[in-house]
Amino acid sequence: MTVKTKKKEDKRIGLFVCHCGVNIAGVVDVKKVAEALKDTPGVSMSTDYVYMCSDPGQQMIIDTIKEKHLDGIIVAACSPTLHEKTFQEAARLAGLNPYQIEIANIREQNSWVHSDKDKATKKAVKIVKSHVAKAIRNENLEPIKVDVKKRALVIGGGVSGLQAALDIADHGYEVILVEKNPSIGGKMIQLSETFPTLDCSQCILTPKMVEVSRHPRIKLLTYHEVDSVSGFIGNFKVRIKKKPRFVDEKLCNLCGECEKVCPQIVPDEFNMGLSFRKAIYMPFPQAIPGTYTLDEDHCLGLSPVRCGKCKDVCEPRAIDFDMKETIIEEEVGAIVVATGYDLYTMQALGEFGGEKYEDVVNGLEFERILSASGPTGGVVRRPSDGKVPKSVVFVQCCGSRDTEKHLPYCSKICCMYTAKHAMLYRHRVPDGQATVFYIDVRTGGKAFDEFYQRTVEEDKVLYIRGKVSKVFKEGDKLIVWGVDTLTGKKVEIEADMVVLAMAMVKTDGVQDLLKKLKISTDIHGFVAEAHPKLRPVESLNAGFFLAGCAHGPKDIPEAVSQASAAAAKVGDLFAQKELSHEPTVVPVNDELCSGCGICVTMCPYGARTLDPSKGVVDVNEILCEGCGACAAACPCGAAQQRNQTDDQIFSMLRAMLRE
Amino acid sequence: MPVRQREKPFGFPKPETPHGEIVILEERCKGCGFCIEYCPHDVLVLSKKFNAKGYHPPEVVKAELCVDCGFCRMICPEFAIYTYELKTGEKP
What we know:
CATH architecture of chain B: 2-Layer Sandwich
Oligomer: heterodimer
Distance between the termini of chain A: 36 Å
Radius of gyration of chain A: 31 Å
Low-confidence stretches of chain A: none
CATH class of the largest domain in chain A: Alpha Beta
Number of strands of chain A: 36
Largest sheet of chain B: 2 strands, antiparallel
Order of helices and strands of chain B: EHEEHE
Number of helices of chain A: 18
Helix content of chain B: 10-25%
Structural class of chain A: alpha/beta
Number of strands of chain B: 4
Strand order of the largest sheet of chain A: 12-9-8-20-33
Structural class of chain B: alpha+beta
Largest sheet of chain A: 5 strands, parallel
CATH topology of the largest domain in chain A: FAD/NAD(P)-binding domain
Distance between the termini of chain B: 37 Å
CATH class of chain B: Alpha Beta
Shape of chain B: elongated
C-alpha cells in the first residue's frame, strides 16, 4: 500500500556511514565516503559513527531525522538481513516511514572481500551513490495486514507430533493431526522399555494416544497424507489425501473374523518383519483408531475381481471395497513438522552381515524381541531358529560417525539404547554374555551416566573400545572380528546374535513431502532450523515449526521438549490479532499489462493468475514474497516491485556507472 | 521403512491361510486363459491337452498355493472352473 510521498526533487536524504569497529573502517575509509557523498544532489547531511547499530548510533539517527527533517536515510553498513529491521524501527520512532530506509552494504560486499583500501573506498562511494539514486525514488509504504487462521496442522503422529498436538489444543486452538500410517504411535510405540528409567514404552505412550483421540479440539486423521500446501504464515491451505482404509472405522467392532479368513500373509511392520500379519490387519492391539485396515498393496486384488472373504464374514458390514482416495481441504495458520526418522539400511554394512544373516539384527528389531508385546512375548530368542542366545554382541556407531563411508554425525541415542539392550538382555538371560563394541560412550543426559555405570558394574556387560571389522557365520555361530583399541589387540568373539546400533536417518520418502511444504533441509535431509542456537524449533520458512527427529537425532525427552516448544511458538503466533506482510510486493499496472501470462509461470508462490474476463494478470499480494522474478520477466513493464521499480534499478546502475 | 522379509522367524509356523481345492470342468472351457491370468498365486497353467472342442483347458500345477480366493471362478466366462475351501488341516 502506498501513502503520500514527497517528490524526488524535494527529498532530503541523510547518510550514516558505519565503521563496524574495524570490520568496515579497517578497509574502507569511512570518513572519506561520508565526505564524498556530502554534495551529491538530494543528500542533505552525511556523517559516520563507530557502531550505527548501537543505542547511541540509533539515537543519533533518530535525532538527526527529527532535527534536519529528513525524508529518507541511507545506512552504509552490513547486510540488510542483519539490521534493516533495527533501522526501520529507529526511523519509525523518529516519525519517518520505515520504507524510506536504505541499507547500503559496504561490509559483506566490500570490506570483507577486499584488501585494497583505495579501491574499496571508491567502491563504497559508488555503492552508496547508487542507493541515493534509489532512496530519492522510494515511496512511503504501509505493511499489508493479514488475519491469522487459528488452527494448526501437525504432520506426524509419533510422540513429538502427539505432544505438539496436545499442547496446541490445550492452548485452546484447534489442531489437525495427520499420520500416514493406520495408527498413531510412531516409533516409540515399537520400543520395549525406555532408558534410563526402564519405563514400558507402550505404557507411557498409550495414555497420550488416547488423550489425543479423545481431545475435543484435535481432529485426528490417520492413514492420511499431506498432498500439497499453499499459502503463507497464518493462512495456509492444505490438501490432505485420505487413503482408502476399506473398513469403516465407526462400524468395525474388532471381532477379527476378517483377519482369520484373509489368505494373504505379509511381514508385520510393527514387529519389524519378525512376525506376520494378514492383508487386513490391525497394526497392534492398542492401535488408535481401533479399527482394521485393508492394505491395498497386499490384498489379492480389488478390481475387477475380488476374493471378498473378509467382507463375507464381517458381521457389522464394515468392509467397503468401493472406498476411493479422497482429498480434504483445510485452512491452517501454522504447521508443525514432526515426521520422525528411520534407521540407516543394514545393506550398507555388508561386512557386518546385515540383511544377510538372520541373527544380525538392528536396534528396532531387537526392541521387538525384547518387548513383552513382541513376537516372542519378551523372551529373548534369535530369529533364525528361536534358540535363546547365550552370547550377544552389540555394535555401536553402525553408520554413524563415519565420515569416510557413511554418515558423519552422531546418532545420539545409540550409546544409551545399546546399554539398555545389553542390560535388559542380561536381565532376561542371566547366564548370557553381552559384549559391546564402542568408539566412545556418550551419556550426556539426566541420569544417563549412572545408567551406563549400572550396565557395566551391576549387569556385568563387557565394553570393548574398538570397531568391528567383520561378522561371518561358522556353523550356527556368528564370528565377530574386531579390535580392542585400548590394548591394541585383535578380538574374536563367538556370538549367537549380533545387534547393530544403526544410525538414525531421515524418514524414507520424507523429501517429497518437504518439497511440497517448500521448507529447507540440511545436507542429511533433516529439516533445518532457522538458527541453531536462538531459533531451534522454527523452520527458516515462516509458519513452519519443527518437533522431534525430523530435525535430527534425539531421545524421547528431547523430542517431547521440542514438541512443547514448537507448540508454544504456535501459541505465540495465534495470540496475535493480525500479521503484517511486507508491502514490497509486485502489483500489476492494468493499463500496461498485455495479459501474456509470462509472470504467472515465473511466480514460485502461485501469487499471480490470469484474469480471463479482464485479460490482465491478477495478484494476490499476500502470497507475493517480493522475489521479483515476475518483474524481471514482464515484457511490458506492467509488473513493478514497490520500492524496487525498473526506474529505481536503472537509476542505481546509472549512478554506479557514471564515473 | 521397508522391513526385512523373513521366511520363518524364530522357527514359528506361519499363520494359517485358507486352502482351496480347484475343480476344472474341462469340457466347458474355451481356452481364454483368464483364470491363469487372474490367479494371484500362479496356481494354473495352460495344459498341453485338448478338450472335445479343441481348446487347451487349464491345469493345476501348484495346488498347495491355492487359497480359495475364487478369482478363477469369478472371471471365467464359461462357468468352467470353481474352488471350494478345504477344512482346517486338510491339505490339497
